[in-house]
Amino acid sequence: MKQQEIVIQNPTGLHARPAKVFVNIAKGFQADIRLFHGEKKANAKSLISLLTLGVESGSTIRIEVNGEDEDAALAALAQAVESGLGEEELIERVAAGAELAPEAIAPEKPEPPQTEPAALPANTIKGVSGAPGIAIGPIYHLKRTEIKVEETFEGESAEKNQLQAAIEQAKGHVARLHAQMLAQNVGSEAAIFDVHLELLDDVELLDAVLAKINQRQSAALAWQSTIDERARLVAGLDDPLLAARAADLHDVGYRVLRILAGVTGDSAQFPNHPVIVVADDLSPSDTASLDRDKVLGFCTASGGPTAHTAIIARALSLPAVVSAGERALALDDNLTVILNGDAGLLIIEPGEDEIAEAKSMQQAGQKLRHEAQQAAGAPAITLDGHRVEIAANIGGAPEAREALKSGAEGVGLLRTEFLFLERKQPPSEDEQFAVYREIAEAMQNAPVIVRTLDVGGDKPLPYIEMSEEVNPFLGVRGIRLCLTRPALFREQLRAVLRATQHGTLRIMFPMVADLTEWLEARALVDEICIELGVSSVEIGIMIEVPSAALMADVFAQHVDFFSVGTNDLTQYTLAMDRMHPQLAGKSDGLHPAVLRLIDQTTRAAHAAGKWVGVCGELGADPQAIPILVGLGVDELSVTVPAVPTVKALVRTLNYSETQALARKALACARASDVRQLV
């Protein structure tokens, strides 16, 4: 056994972000690793366990390691702590005597709800804007099913089997929510459910539940009490980031408990007419599962604008008011209200004038969307005759059909991960072929770009054995993973190439960083084409890492097209995790550094007679579209609902003016300068 004492230098101690870094490093070693702080100790491979230590800045912790790789483990962990566990810049600023604004360390807590502000009418509740938009309709109170846990005990083996089965079933549910979010092109928000999967795999949590089962508690009672204990400990640390993790714990805990208690179906029966949901709070799972045909928006008594629930609402364009206080819960069902997500207001039993004003605001937005929808089938041509192709990002056959209806001129990104999730073994070649064929036929010969499997350390699959990675975003993912799993890769490529006989399919490789990766992948496609006796198809790569953009002139001599994944390109260029609570606001694809890489890619492609698309979130950003068009991007691939409005916006532009705008943007110093310029 080896041990070492070390001081935590992080300004806010061992809170959520550095704790997660510590856990990920610890998981990479076989040794048993414990962390001691005063009288408390924690399993270093459990995020929940580490968070409950409450380690403050300047505290001394003791790392205790026992196992065959203990020397390497202790050295790696000590080095990580000394380096700052991902918060090096903050530590340096504090050491230099700089004062940190509270928001530089953690998101600011929302102000307490004002239930009766003097400046507001008596029929108005002031909350906080959770997601923009206006909705008018009757209230429906959404309450979770109360689960009564029976204190029966069927024996250790039976209870443990029930627990494991429930956890596995819950993982499947979470994976479906993850896939659902990905299909709606809200990948960054879908990462919320990656956290849920991590919590369901937490070793400390499972050990605590099993220990209670060993003491003759039922699986349901043991699970419920353990979740409640852990959530109270985490929430009690008075850190907004940790409080969010407590909400996530309750969410996954409730999901498993429902399964253990045999509660099936939806926990709520919605009326047959659209409603505005009112609840004490909604979990991320609740929000992602809301039926958009029945729910116009929602208002919660608690919660906050930085919580996962609000993030998902914004991603789904669902108007929301949060932190509205207890008064909202006292309102009767079917009471008509105006939900103003822009201003964070809930107007109770509005008068005719109030309803008229709200409807006017609604209609203005709807008119713009309607006009765009009416012209959706027309091409996106600028006022001076420059055409830009507008395609759709999809995650399955149903979306392909919707894409055509929305006016999409093709599929710029087919995420094939939906075929590989929620299962214990990979899909067969024939199964994949059937899906690719259905999508190809649904698109009626419009081009469909099939991105090969894009998973890895950050998006693991249960049937692919992978070691834990300290930094999975820089690890074996995308094309790197496929090339190390040739059998899996070959089956997918065979399925795609077989489906080319039923439509216009193209192949795109993700995360290509080096020409060698391209050559190896391209050679495999050529080999399979010969095997199947089919003609080769257009093959391109995603520009997601700076090396690919900087070498675009070299790649352009080999590939048929480029598609810029602005989400990852921004993340890797700025070295900022888009989900990082401190950095998310700064991770802007309109940063001049990102724009310069897109410009370099586009110029290199056009010089070689190749085309360039953009399939990241930036492609639907109204402030980014004029600049992307001005940089010469040939295709914008966006979410299905965004297709008509993006087309409409392009038609208002003058290409020569966007070119001048783009040149000015490239000369800017900051993303904020670019947005101000637009």
Describe the protein's architecture and organization.
With 678 residues, the chain is of the alpha/beta class. It has 4 domains: 2-101, HPr-like (Histidine-containing Protein, Chain: A); 124-144 and 267-359, Phosphohistidine domain (Glucose Oxidase, domain 1), CATH 3.50.30; 156-260, PtsI, HPr-binding domain (Enzyme I, Chain A, domain 2); 378-653, Phosphoenolpyruvate-binding domains (TIM Barrel). It contains 26 helices and 21 strands. The chain has an 8-stranded mixed β-sheet. Strands 14-15-16-17-18-19-20-21 form an 8-stranded parallel beta barrel, surrounded by 5 helices. Strands 1-4-2-3 form a 4-stranded antiparallel β-sheet. Helix 14 (397-405) links the parallel strand 14 and strand 15. Helix 13 (352-374) crosses helix 24. The model is unreliable at 98-118 (pLDDT under 50).
Largest β sheet strand count, sense and barrel closure = 8 strands, mixed
Described by its quaternary structure, the protein is single chain
Please state roughly what percent of the residues sit in beta strands, choosing from under 5%, 5-15%, 15-25%, 25-35%, 35-45% or over 45%: 15-25%
Number of strands: 21
Q: What value does the average pLDDT take?
A: 84
Shape: globular
Q: Please compute the radius of gyration using only Cα atoms.
A: 26 Å
Order of strands across the main sheet:
5-12-11-7-8-9-10-6
CATH architecture of the largest domain: Alpha-Beta Barrel
> How many structural domains does the protein architecture include?
4
